[in-house]
Every structure is written in structure tokens, then in C-alpha cells.
């Protein structure tokens, strides 16, 4: 459980974290935001889809979206994304929702992550709510702040 426990309800498909840093882009690479998550060591680097108005050190809520390679249902393991510091490369967690219009599944991998299915043979309906899934993800994970 997050400590101190959140007092406001948010959409369960949104990630709740703290803005650690905003990194400017360079050499043709986009700028990134670094988000920390309470009670974890995670610092995830994501490309913002719109300007971030939060101050460093303040709470931030929004949608994390990644492009998944082939997604597999697995029998064992926990909820995580790796590496602990940097851009996400691998995600494993439980399916908590489907996003059919965007060909995505929302996975609880410690925080909710929207995984757009990158394998054309897969559909969100191929995965049951509660399935434990695992996959590698492509570069370019994004963060969209909640309104």
C-alpha cells in the first residue's frame, strides 16, 4: 500500500507518481520526464505527449503508454517493469482492462501501463482480465498527464 495512503480516488488505469525531473531533448532525441512511484525504487523515463506543468517533486497523475512486442500469458512471476531506472524495456503484470479502440491492454505492473499490442496477430480480447502477461516493449514509452 502507498504510504501515506492516497485520499483521492483516481481512474485505476492512471499512474500516480512524483515528477523527479524533466530532461531536455538533444541530438534529435525528444525530451523526457522522470517519474518516481511512492514506496518503490522505480524511476521511469518517458516521453511527454504534452507539456508537463507540474513542478519537480510534486505529484503527477497520467497515462503511461508503451508499444509491446508479442505479449505472452505466463504462469509465474510478479508485477514489475524493468529496468528500475530508465526507459521501460520489459513489463509483466496482470491485465486490469481492455482498450479495444487503441488495440491495447492495461496491465498492473506495480503501476498501470497501457500496452499497445505491436503484434498484428494479437487483439485485446485475446487476454482475460486477471491474466498474468509478460513482454518486451519498444523504445518511446509516453506519459500523458491526466486533465
Rg value: 15 Å
Return residue spans where pLDDT drops below 50 for at least 5 consecutive residues.
Answer: none
**Order of strands across the widest beta sheet?**
1-2-3-12-4
Coarse morphology: globular
Give the CA-CA distance, first to last residue: 25 Å
Q: Number of DSSP strands?
A: 12
Helicity, in percent? under 10%
Q: In total, how many domains does the architecture comprise?
A: 1
Q: Can you write the helix and strand succession as a string? A: EEEEEEEEEEEE
Describe this structure in words.
A hairpin with a 3-residue loop joins strand 9 (104-108) and strand 10. Helix content is 0%, strand content 46%. 25% of the residues are buried. It has 147 residues and is an all-beta fold. The protein has strands spanning 15-23, 32-36, 43-48, 59-68, 72-73, 80-82, 85-86, 90-99, 104-108, 112-117, 132-136, 142-145. It has one domain. Strands 1-2-3-12-4 form a 5-stranded mixed beta barrel.
Supply database-style keywords.
0% helix; five-stranded mixed β-barrel; 147 residues; mainly beta
List the helices and strands and how they pair.
Blueprint: E1 15-23, E2 32-36, E3 43-48, E4 59-68, E5 72-73, E6 80-82, E7 85-86, E8 90-99, E9 104-108, E10 112-117, E11 132-136, E12 142-145
Parallel strand pairs: 3-7, 3-12, 4-10
Antiparallel strand pairs: 1-2, 1-4, 2-3, 4-12, 5-11, 6-8, 8-9, 8-11, 9-10
Short structural summary:
The protein has no helices and 12 strands. By secondary structure, it is mainly beta.
Amino acid at each position: 500500500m502507498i504510504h501515506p495512503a492516497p485520499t483521492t480516488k483516481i481512474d485505476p488505469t492512471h499512474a500516480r507518481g512524483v515528477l523527479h525531473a524533466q530532461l531536455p531533448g538533444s541530438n534529435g532525441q525528444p525530451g523526457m520526464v522522470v517519474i518516481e512511484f511512492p514506496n518503490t525504487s522505480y524511476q521511469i523515463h518517458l516521453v511527454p505527449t504534452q507539456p508537463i506543468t507540474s513542478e519537480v517533486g510534486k505529484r503527477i497523475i497520467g497515462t503511461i503508454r508503451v508499444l509491446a512486442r508479442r505479449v505472452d500469458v505466463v504462469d509465474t512471476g510478479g508485477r514489475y517493469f524493468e529496468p528500475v531506472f530508465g526507459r521501460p524495456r520489459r513489463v509483466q503484470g496482470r491485465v486490469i482492462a481492455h482498450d479495444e479502440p487503441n488495440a491495447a491492454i492495461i496491465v498492473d505492473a506495480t503501476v498501470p501501463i497501457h500496452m499497445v499490442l505491436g503484434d498484428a496477430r494479437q487483439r485485446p480480447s485475446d487476454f482475460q482480465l486477471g491474466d498474468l502477461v509478460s513482454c518486451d516493449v519498444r523504445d518511446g514509452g509516453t506519459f500523458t498527464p491526466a486533465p
